[in-house]
């Protein structure tokens, strides 16, 4: 039997948008800035980092920003992973109602960002739990909000709007600058718009797995799970690079999804 991590219970009312982080709270977060983060593995020249704590989150954001600056781009590959749980009298983001007392709930377990040489896998429930334990706060650091809400850095992926909606509904995290690769594919006249189909068409050197991973809340992620998640975000980054060239050549506009507060 697989050992699962405890999923933290979220507060009924989030202070993310309704309440600004105070000066004292901001000082608390500054104490975590010197986190050390080493890659767990790599894939096709891309270093992969696992993020489970607040210090690691802050460090991972710096790594992403350094890579963006180094390669002179304004986008990152973006994806999330969910796991389905059956709960009684559940409320929230439900995929299927099984009966009057039980529902299947898709709980967001992982956020993936990828650049040319860096891929960050954020175990968001563990990070949120670490923040609660370390600071007694129900807020993510300003740096994380700023990164997600920065429209100047596009977050690109297949059906990326769904991922941004899940972050908003489950963690009240606002994501701006979302670009759906499937919508770009349609604007270019492609009928098949799945991640696998697009990877085959554009030869990005990645073949996404057909086997769905369902163990994102395990205490430790297997290397197979890590590569599964990382490849989706890396593929999104590389696909956008290739598709953007076609969009520019044809004089089309990129379909960008903008979320309002």
What are the low-pLDDT stretches, counting only 5+ consecutive residues below 50? Answer: 7-31
Quaternary organisation of the protein chains: single chain
Structural class based on helices, strands and sheet pairing:
alpha/beta
| SSE order, one letter for each helix or strand | HEEHEEEEHHEHEHHHE
Major sheet details? 9 strands, mixed
Q: What's the alpha carbon Rg, rounded to whole Å?
A: 18 Å
Share of helix, binned: 25-40%
The CATH superfamily name is Ribonuclease H-like superfamily/Ribonuclease H
Continuous helix count: 8
The top level CATH class name: Alpha Beta
CATH topology: Nucleotidyltransferase, domain 5
| Beta-strand share of residues | 15-25%
Distance between the termini: 42 Å
Q: Please, what is the average pLDDT? A: 81
CATH architecture tag? 2-Layer Sandwich
Principal-axis shape: globular
Domain tally: 1
Q: Could you tell me the number of beta strands?
A: 9
């Amino acid at each position: 039997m697989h050992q699962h991590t405890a999923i933290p219970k979220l507060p009924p009312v989030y202070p993310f948008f309704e309440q600004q982080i105070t000066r004292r709270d901001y000082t608390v977060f500054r104490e975590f800035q010197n986190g050390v983060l080493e890659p767990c593995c790599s894939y096709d020249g891309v270093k992969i980092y696992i993020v489970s704590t607040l210090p690691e989150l802050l460090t991972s954001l710096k790594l992403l920003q350094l890579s963006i600056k180094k390669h002179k781009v304004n986008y990152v590959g973006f994806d999330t992973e969910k796991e389905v749980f059956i709960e009684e009298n559940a409320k929230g983001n439900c995929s299927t109602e099984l009966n009057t007392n039980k529902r299947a709930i898709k709980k967001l377990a992982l956020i993936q960002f990828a650049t040319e040489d860096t891929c960050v896998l954020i175990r968001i429930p563990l990070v949120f739990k670490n923040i609660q334990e370390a600071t007694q706060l129900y807020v993510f650091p300003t740096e994380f909000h700023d990164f997600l809400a920065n429209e100047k850095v596009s977050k690109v992926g297949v059906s990326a709007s769904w991922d941004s909606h899940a972050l908003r509904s489950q963690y009240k995290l606002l994501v701006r600058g979302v670009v759906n690769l499937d919508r770009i594919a349609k604007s270019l006249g492609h009928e098949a718009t799945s991640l696998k189909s697009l990877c085959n068409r554009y030869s990005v050197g990645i073949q996404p797995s057909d086997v769905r991973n369902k163990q994102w809340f395990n205490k430790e992620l297997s290397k197979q799970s890590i590569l599964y998640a990382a490849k989706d975000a890396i593929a999104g980054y590389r696909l956008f690079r290739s598709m953007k060239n076609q969009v520019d050549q044809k004089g089309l506009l990129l379909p960008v999804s903008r979320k309002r507060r």
